[in-house]
Design brief:
Largest interface: A-B, 98 and 99 residues
Largest sheet of chain A: 8 strands, mixed
Distance between the termini of chain A: 63 Å
Shape of chain A: elongated
Strand order of the largest sheet of chain A: 2-6-7-14-13-12-8-11
Number of helices of chain A: 18
Oligomer: homodimer
Structural class of chain A: alpha+beta
Number of strands of chain A: 19
CATH topology of one domain in chain A: Rossmann fold
């Protein structure tokens, strides 16, 4: 750039797909994470905080999610002098770093290792409305236990999380098992273990079809399992090409949910008949249901439900998903259930990448931002943090006095601040107090100072009066009182304790 | 890679310069951040959480720290289809994102805007022992106030933070002012405002010399201000080339600290004599001292000290630094003061980069990891989180009973878990409980189940006995008691309530 050319000013913009969180947005999330952490802790899970950065090698380059093969990571190469530095990347979830940690510290960690982790993850995806490239996850995993008691425990813990968040009666945890679907496919003759690539491909088509049950209904899924389906717009989606009989077996599996785990297991057992892996899967579901029953988690809270598909391609045994069952209005004003806010399952092969040894593991990830949105939709979000008491500045040479007032209030545990802008225009100070959500403003001019008093303005009451008061009433300003300087803290406390 | 070649296993390694935090390391930091946030909140500061990623353009490419011009950021280019995507980078501090936010939302934010932020930042530097490329910062800044009352407030808040952390009597906040040094340089004839490049260069040499006062003493600094200094190893550092008289003025400035702010201001006033900017600086220091005095922050807690240099090159007015005054033993077993754990000051030009308008701002950054190390060195670190009660598994067909025991304990608020490893070897279960720091283990075999009782093993007491007990005493296992199954929770609670 030539020296004479004035440098262009940088744009003050959040990068595309990222966002900033202010005030109550930060504290509401923190309160939620604190509540979840308390439940995780009580179950014996220990916190783990890995760095945001991992080697691409340790991370694996892509998301292990068949639905989004193009999903990527933010990555860069280390600038070593020989030009061959490591490739580093931001973690895309909290599971991949756990797998690395479980392998790296395998001789030091307790086994089984129960850990929880909470923090941002990053996805190098095309941003969209409400879809951000940095978001929070909150995971709990048990590494080193092959027992389905570990899966049952995480489902129970998930239920406890929702209860702790005040969502009793408004959630259900649904459990399925990948082995049962494998058994169903074996029985239906879909599974061809001798050709893994073909198998994975066809399984993918079947899974994606099942996953659309909610949206398309049984007929839509039947079409996708068979020849294919033409949607309202006329677009045609090629199907899995299953015969009608085979498609019906898959559909029967998906519809196998009954009122209790025991009944559902009976239906599934009939479907997977001669398949060893299928029977294993049903046994596991039965055991999970029995464990949860013994602890009092009935089917109103946790239920075996074969229509849960999410992540079946990724997991190796039990999978679970939590959804919120209350209704909200969507963008078009239609009622719909809020839906899934957490999911997980058993993934026995992740650590094996590093060590060659299979290490059984199971865990759940809570979608923190979705859960926050749910609480907000229910009006259960934490109220906006109350603004501070604002001490106004009438005489800038007496700043020390104003600071001392704020200081006194703080010592009594009251949030307080002195106005630090240009004090010339008093109206600006009150506008500022309003913008800060201040409950109270303190005023002390020359006259008040001489008499050793302060004016206390109840802004909450003042706003209420202003809403429907005559000019006379408003002028009378009953929301303002004069008290002795030494009574400042007590008088403010009384207003804050309200009822105003 | 040829298909026949087995793929190399990825290394399970934290990237160079990064680290993992386990258990109590995570909770101790969280407890500290929570305490700091409470103080910041009480002062009317609002939380802000920006994303980890910023555009390089918004961030500025390098750290604004003259001492480390090579310090860099982790950056990468967005993969736009036209190959000209934005350059993005991880934030290297919390101030640059604040400047971007203050510019971006300038019409919506209250003014002045008090905000706090806490979270990791990243530096692309050569890692070293104890020097990591990701670390926590915890900042509070006031944007939009030119009043030194804002600086005084942040110093008072910093003192309150240390008190809240239990460090009363063990810290001092030291305040200096960049304008006073400018005045001193003007008076000493060092400053040549007509040649900004020469000025910046020479100021840098003088600042670096002053900054070595602690280590080299007055004579060492005098040499560095003059011709230069040869150290013990024979290496020669070129000096600033000041005449002796001029060097003495600088040294007198550095040594101007007296017992009270008022006295120090008097000394400084003598030194900056005819310099307008110098006198302004002294006025500001006096005002800050008076404000703090009025709120009861005496020179034992906050003191005007012209030897504070840190960041003087970067800041535009008051600068402040907090240090811990207790002694610790260094690596070589020598006593030394723990030193600086927080610093900040006024930087009126940061927002101007974006908008062209100068916006006054002042703020502090607490070095969270150093402060944690200080608390640990003092033995004031939070104790390791207590391990969970471990319910052992004697009979794997009765897993539901064991889960129900853990569940009962949790409902009473007691951290508890069932052993989920292979239960075959009971010794392994007790080793696991030990590794988990479990205070209590629960045991129920076939016999106990038949009789409706459980064995409760007090592991803390057991360890104490094992330390100095005879074999007979140890065998008698007085640390183990049998209670009825329905008394499990009460009996465990009594052990946890201790004293054992």
């Amino acid at each position: 750039m030539a020296k004479t050319k004035a440098p262009r000013r940088p744009r003050a913009e959040t990068p595309k797909g990222f966002r900033d969180y202010f005030g109550a947005e930060v504290t509401a999330r923190k309160a939620m994470l604190d509540t979840i952490a308390r439940v995780y802790h009580r179950y014996g899970f220990d916190p783990l905080e890995t760095s945001a950065v991992e080697t691409v090698e340790a991370l694996g380059k892509f998301l292990p999610d068949v639905d989004r093969p193009n999903a990527g990571v933010f990555a860069w190469q280390e600038g070593e002098e020989d030009g061959r530095g490591d490739w580093l990347a931001l973690r895309y979830d909290l599971t991949a770093p756990l797998a690395r940690v479980a392998a790296q510290y395998r001789n030091d960690l307790p086994s089984p290792y129960r850990r929880y982790a909470m923090g941002p993850v990053w996805r190098n995806e095309k941003p969209g409305p409400g879809r951000f490239r940095q978001f929070y996850q909150c995971d709990a995993d048990t590494v080193g236990s092959g027992s389905v008691a570990a899966d049952a425990e995480i489902c129970a813990m998930l239920a406890d999380v929702f209860e702790a968040l005040g969502l009793a009666g408004d959630y259900v945890v649904r459990i399925n098992n990948r082995k049962v679907l494998n058994g169903v496919m074996e029985v239906a003759g879909i599974l061809d273990p001798s050709n893994p690539e073909k198998f994975a491909h066809e399984r993918g088509i079947v899974l994606r079809a099942i996953d659309k049950l909610d949206r398309l209904g049984a007929d839509g899924v039947r079409a996708l399992l068979g020849e294919g389906r033409r949607d309202e717009s006329g677009d045609f989606t090629k199907g899995a090409g299953l015969s009608e009989t085979r498609a019906e077996v898959v559909l029967a599996f998906v519809a196998a949910r009954r009122d209790t785990g025991a009944e559902t297991a009976r239906v599934l057992r009939g479907l997977v008949g001669g398949s060893k892996i299928g029977m294993d899967g049903v046994d596991e579901l039965e055991e999970i249901a029995a464990l949860l029953d013994a602890q009092g988690y009935g089917p109103d809270r946790i239920i075996i439900d074969p229509s849960v598909v999410r992540g079946l391609g990724y997991y190796t045994g039990p999978v679970y998903e939590a959804e919120l069952t209350f209704e909200i209005l969507d963008d078009k004003g239609r009622k719909r259930q809020f839906g899934s806010v957490a999911g997980g399952g058993r993934y026995d092969d992740l650590v094996k990448r590093f060590t060659g040894q299979a290490v059984p593991a199971t865990g759940v990830s809570i979608g923190v931002d979705r859960l926050l949105a749910a609480l907000a939709a229910r009006g259960q979000a934490q109220e906006a943090a109350q603004g501070p008491v604002v001490v106004t500045v009438m005489d800038r040479t007496r700043m020390a006095d104003y600071q001392a007032m704020a200081s006194d209030l703080r010592r009594a545990g009251i949030r307080a601040e002195v106005y630090l802008g240009n004090p010339k225009n008093f109206g600006n100070q009150l506008k500022y107090a309003d913008k800060r959500g201040a409950p109270v403003a303190i005023i002390q001019g020359e006259d008040e100072a001489a008499r050793g008093v302060v004016q206390i303005k109840d802004l909450v009451l003042g706003a209420k009066i202003a809403e429907n008061a005559t000019l006379e009433e408003w002028k009378a300003r009953p929301a303002q009182q004069e008290v002795a300087r030494e009574d400042l803290v007590g008088a403010v406390q009384r207003i804050l304790d309200g009822p105003t």
